[in-house]
Specification:
Distance between the termini: 51 Å
Strand order of the largest sheet: 1-4
Number of helices: 7
Order of helices and strands: HEEEEHHHHHH
Shape: elongated
Structural class: mainly alpha
Length: 168
């Protein structure tokens, strides 16, 4: 998702608004870099108001309606369901993105720095094998050495003597 946001940020810096961000318009290159495609509905900043995305988090469009007229009504009025399985920070992000007043919506920089994208562990890059199997994250081999050094500093050698050797 961070790569998608960085791509959107690049487009916005060029004065381009995509207007059709959805899962089927994201492509993964061989090197696992996400590409944004289908700029057929794109426009310039001067010609359009911001229309936020939603599908990446929920898996479906936020404004489900029986007709286009009904959908536009839901968009104007800000009526949309937020699925219960989405985290609190995800819900906050969605609500801010879909604010009925465009000037109340966050800019791309605010979205990138939102707590939803900055909580927990997020790898900078994934292996191409993740297209076929779930990713595995092996943490640096330096972590055990780091923790040993930290324990030495904090406990001044007491940690190793009492807890690692089993002697008192």
């Amino acid at each position: 998702m961070k790569q998608i946001l960085q791509g959107v940020q690049f487009l916005h810096h060029q004065g381009i608004i995509h207007r059709d961000l959805k899962l089927s318009n994201f492509f993964i290159a061989k090197n696992m870099v996400v590409k944004i495609g289908d700029l057929g509905l794109a426009t310039t900043v001067e010609q359009c108001e911001k229309i936020p995305g939603y599908t990446m988090l929920s898996g479906y469009s936020p404004f489900r309606a029986h007709s286009q007229k009904e959908m536009y009504y839901f968009i104007r009025e800000g009526f949309f369901p937020v699925p219960s399985y989405i985290s609190l920070s995800g819900k906050r992000l969605i609500i801010s993105l879909l604010a009925s007043c465009p000037s109340s919506r966050p800019c791309i920089e605010d979205i990138i720095s939102h707590e939803f994208f900055n909580q927990g562990f997020t790898p900078e890059k994934l292996s191409s094998s993740t297209c076929h199997t779930a990713p595995t994250f092996s943490f640096s081999l330096h972590l055990p050495r780091f923790f040993r050094k930290a324990a030495k500093v904090l406990y001044r050698g007491v940690f190793h003597k009492y807890f690692c050797s089993g002697t008192a």
